Amino acid sequence: MRAEDILKEYAEVVDKEMEKLFENRRYLLYDMMRYHLGWLDENLRKVEQYRGKRFRPTLCLLVYSSIAGVYDKALPAAVAIELIHNFSLIHDDIEDMDEERRHRPTVWKLFGIPHAINAGDGMHVLANIAALKLRERYVSSDKILDVLEILNNAVMNLCEGQFLDMSFQDRDTITMQEYMEMIYKKTASLIEASCKIGAILATDDEEIVNRFSSFGRNIGLAFQIVDDIIGIWGKEEKTGKPVASDIRNKKKSMPIVCVFESDRRDEIVEIYRKEKLSEEDIEKVLNILNELNILEVCKKEAEKFKKIALEELEKTGIKNEPIEKIKTLAEFLIEREY
Amino acid sequence: MRAEDILKEYAEVVDKEMEKLFENRRYLLYDMMRYHLGWLDENLRKVEQYRGKRFRPTLCLLVYSSIAGVYDKALPAAVAIELIHNFSLIHDDIEDMDEERRHRPTVWKLFGIPHAINAGDGMHVLANIAALKLRERYVSSDKILDVLEILNNAVMNLCEGQFLDMSFQDRDTITMQEYMEMIYKKTASLIEASCKIGAILATDDEEIVNRFSSFGRNIGLAFQIVDDIIGIWGKEEKTGKPVASDIRNKKKSMPIVCVFESDRRDEIVEIYRKEKLSEEDIEKVLNILNELNILEVCKKEAEKFKKIALEELEKTGIKNEPIEKIKTLAEFLIEREY
Question: What is the domain count for chain A?
Answer without folding.
Answer: 1
